[in-house]
Design a protein that fits this description.
The structure is a single chain. The chain is α/β, with parallel strands linked by helices. The chain contains three helices and three strands. It has a three-stranded parallel β-sheet, covered by helices on one side. The longest helix is centred in the first third of the chain and has 8 residues.
Length: about 80
């Protein structure tokens, strides 16, 4: 998996961000629940603009996106490597 990961440590404006993300086949947002979380994340809304699959844990952060994303219980690294 390490051969397929690129770290970008600079700020990317919207255009460059979407161009960079568009090379991905799918996205994984492995959020953990927190007491003050609710609604969907800005990251998820940005990724949805690319019309590619988004995988998340079955988290309260994504309650309002049942039809738009794939939610997986017990999302973990081993499961992700199989996808």
């Amino acid at each position: 998996m390490q051969d397929n990961v690129i770290l970008i440590r600079e700020y990317l404006d919207d255009e460059k961000l979407l161009k960079t993300l568009n090379v991905c086949d799918l996205f994984v947002l492995n959020y953990k629940d927190a007491p003050n979380m609710g609604g969907n994340s800005a990251a998820c809304k940005t990724l949805m603009r690319l019309c590619k699959p988004i995988i998340t844990p079955n988290s309260i952060a994504f309650l309002d996106l049942d039809d738009e994303i794939l939610k997986i219980n017990n999302l973990n690294k081993n499961l992700l490597l199989k996808i």
